[in-house]
């Protein structure tokens, strides 16, 4: 038994002092100590020479020695398994890993395009809060509390008495601009708006608008028409056809809706244009004198025009999207189709 203890101590010192320089030397260590003819198996064979009353103690010592050797081997092996920094194994001529590049959302692409077109015409950008008071959203826009046109916009109210609501249009931004700025005024107002509508392929409870306002001396309906003609030609191409239809909005008089020839059927009639060959893209008109007077602007001296469009509708026509719900579902299959757009 004493001889066995001395051998184990001697082998432990030898193994503790062992070092290796490469994976080949690690394998040589394994064969020498843990192989089928290795030192551990040989010393295990000496159990037969141990007296019976000492076999239990000897077995514990031999098992501890075997674990010691296996632990040392695993440590040596790990040095080379985890060492990937050897420059000789790196091929610097290989191409790099592809980096996935994101893209703007289609609504952001079209919104930025709209803003860019009107900025070239001298329009500045104005923004306002999503939560508005009743006056800026309705009252200032010639929509008093008992006005029937309010029924056209089923509203999300945050509070009543006083009334606070999620804005139903970005006309509230125009109101704030007229409240704080004297003519001449030339702004566009992009932003998200909210209405309590049933969600479907053609409508949603939130959407995006870009509204425009121009107030100055001698501003006419002809100025409005030429501004919008320029916009649609820049957005959809020079061959696009345009028509104006009389309409009604409380904050403009006279008012008109603007249609363009359907891009999907090229004016021949389809489900998108309801077989008319025309698609409405925006509402417009001359600013109502009452709206000007609400902000202390002399309606005898100044006139102006305003217009508003839904970004979703423009995007639908630009990219032929047939369901407005796709814009907010975050479906990667839909969004990846716009990776080529900037």
UniProtKB/TrEMBL annotation:
Its EC number is 6.1.1.20. Binds 2 magnesium ions per tetramer. It comes from the Bacteria. Its cofactor is Mg(2+). Keywords: Aminoacyl-tRNA synthetase, ATP-binding, Cytoplasm, Ligase, Magnesium, Metal-binding, Nucleotide-binding, Protein biosynthesis. GO terms for molecular function: ATP binding; magnesium ion binding; phenylalanine-tRNA ligase activity; tRNA binding. Residues 110-317 form the Aminoacyl-transfer RNA synthetases class-II family profile domain. One of its GO terms (biological process) is phenylalanyl-tRNA aminoacylation. Mg(2+) binds at residue 253. InterPro entries: aa-tRNA-synth_II (IPR006195), aa-tRNA-synth_II/BPL/LPL (IPR045864), Phe-tRNA-synth_IIc_asu (IPR004529), Phe-tRNA_ligase_II_N (IPR004188), Phe_tRNA_ligase_alpha1_bac (IPR022911), Phenylalanyl-tRNA_Synthase (IPR002319), tRNA-bd_arm (IPR010978). Tetramer of two alpha and two beta subunits. Belongs to the class-II aminoacyl-tRNA synthetase family. Phe-tRNA synthetase alpha subunit type 1 subfamily. This is Phenylalanine--tRNA ligase alpha subunit. It comes from Arachidicoccus soli.
């Amino acid at each position: 038994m004493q001889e066995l203890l001395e051998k184990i101590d001697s082998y432990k010192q030898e193994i503790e002092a062992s070092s290796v320089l490469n994976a080949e030397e690690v394998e040589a260590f394994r064969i020498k100590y843990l192989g089928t003819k290795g030192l551990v198996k040989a010393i295990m064979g000496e159990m037969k020479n141990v007296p019976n009353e000492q076999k239990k103690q000897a077995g514990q010592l031999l098992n501890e020695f075997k674990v010691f050797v296996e632990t040392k081997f695993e440590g040596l092996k790990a040095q080379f398994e985890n060492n990937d920094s050897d420059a000789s194994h790196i091929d610097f001529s290989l191409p790099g890993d592809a980096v996935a590049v994101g893209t703007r959302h289609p609504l952001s692409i079209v919104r930025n395009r709209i803003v860019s077109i009107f900025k070239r015409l001298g329009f500045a950008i104005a923004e306002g809060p999503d939560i508005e008071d009743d006056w800026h959203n309705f009252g200032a826009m010639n929509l008093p509390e008992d006005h029937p046109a309010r029924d056209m916009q089923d509203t999300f109210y945050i509070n009543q008495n006083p009334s606070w609501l999620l804005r139903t249009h970005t006309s509230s931004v125009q109101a704030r601009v007229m409240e704080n700025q004297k003519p001449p005024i030339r702004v566009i107002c992009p932003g998200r708006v909210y209405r309590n509508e049933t969600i479907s392929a053609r409508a949603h409870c939130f959407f995006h608008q870009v509204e425009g306002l121009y107030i100055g001396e001698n501003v006419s309906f002809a100025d409005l028409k030429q501004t919008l003609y320029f916009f649609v030609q820049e957005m959809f191409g020079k061959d696009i056809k345009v028509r104006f239809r009389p309409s009604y909005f409380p904050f403009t008089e006279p008012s008109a809706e603007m249609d363009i020839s359907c891009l999907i059927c090229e004016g021949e009639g389809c489900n998108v244009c309801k077989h008319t060959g025309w698609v409405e893209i925006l509402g417009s008109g001359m600013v109502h004198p009452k709206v000007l007077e609400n902000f202390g602007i002399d309606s005898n001296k100044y006139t102006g025009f305003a217009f508003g469009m839904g970004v979703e509708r423009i995007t639908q026509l630009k990219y032929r999207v047939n369901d407005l719900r796709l814009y907010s579902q975050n479906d990667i299959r839909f969004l990846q189709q716009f990776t080529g757009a900037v």
